[in-house]
Amino acid sequence: MPAEKATGIVIRTSDWSETSRIATFFTREFGKVRALAKGGRRLKSNFEVALDLLTVCNIVFLRKQSGLDLLTEARADERFSGLRSNLSALYAGYYIAELLDLGTQDHDPHPNLFDEALGALRDLHSLRQDISARTMRFELAWLHELGYRPRFDACAVCDDKLETCPTSPRGWTFSPTAGGLLCAKCETAPTDKRAVSDSALEKLRQLDDPTRTMPSIAPLQRVELRQLLGHYVSHVLARRPKLLAYLE
Questions:
Q1: pLDDT above 60: residue 173
Q2: Nearest CA to 92 among 116, 67, 63, 124?
Q3: What is the per-residue burial (b if ≥16 Cβ within 10 Å, else e) of 85-105?
Q4: CA–CA gap between residue 248 and residue 242 (Å, rounded)
Q5: How far apart are CA 161 and CA 184, in angstroms?
Q6: 120 burial type by CB count under 10 A (0-12 exposed, 13-18 middle, 19+ buried)
Q7: Beta-strand (E) ranges in the chain?
């Protein structure tokens, strides 16, 4: 069988035997690749530090029709050492890896999502941007790529635009089941709705547009946005990501 070459981010590892381990990569070319690295647990492994979590590496693997692929080569290309010096940034990086693992299928490429993940890890490494805001922008890009982009410009049920759709006295509500905002006349149906303030809604619209400057987020807004997006991500995955608790 022919060998495949790819650039991937290590998003998960687990032990397979006393000497081998399983490494999961999110690659630009093939999407998620789960491969057996024989000898990967040895101190003087041929893979060296390439299998460390969140490492970007160039890999060569033999693709199997079923089961695990076989990793034959992995060379580290980029390591985000800055994450180790900031616990919040490290947790955010682990959370990105968890979303890539849980939200994608084997050998289903999403090159745009790979580029977004790589850009997010670089920003977290350099601390060029607010950690919470950068993580939320990745979440929205992840939702968009998977086909679950929430509606922030109109009611997700009746499709009335924000400018014309009547609001309730307490503001807008957001429903994961509906897939976005709900106006006053549509908010009675879903049971998973929660209120969203006008200020938080504006921040969401800024975060959802990659052409706009990353917004500054006040502490109270950060709590509201974190809970709302965490609620939606958990709905999409049908489970709550483990690392989400560390971001909250």
A1: yes
A2: 124
A3: eeeebbbbbbbbbbbbebbbe
A4: 11
A5: 13
A6: buried
A7: 3-15, 21-27, 31-37, 56-62, 69-78, 172-175, 180-182, 194-196
Q: What is the spatial distance between Cα 231 and Cα 235, in angstroms, rounded to a whole number?
A: 6
CA atoms within 13 A on the CB side of 19: 5
205, containing H or E segment: helix 198-207
**String of DSSP letters for 76-107:** EEE--GGGGG-HHHHHHHHHHHHHHHHH--BT
**Closest Cα to residue 61, out of 80, 78, 37?**
37
Q: Are 143 and 233 in contact (CB under 8 A)?
A: yes
pLDDT (tens digit, 9 = 90+) per residue, 114-167? 999 999 999 999 987 899 999 999 999 999 999 999 998 888 888 877 665 555
